[in-house]
Amino acid sequence: MTENHHHQIKQSSSTKRIAVKVDDLTVAYNYKPVLWDIDLEIPEGVLMAIVGPNGAGKSTLIKSILGILKPLAGSIRIYNKPYSKQRALVAYVPQKGSVDWDFPTTALDVVTMGTYGSLGWIKRPRQRHKKAALEALEKVGMLPFKNRQISQLSGGQQQRIFLARALVQNASIYFMDEPFQGVDATTEIAIINILKELRKANKTVIVVHHDLQTVPEYFDWVTFLNVKKIATGPVKDIFNDDNLTKTYGINYKVSVQE
Question: Is-above-0.90 flag for pTM?
Answer without folding.
Answer: no
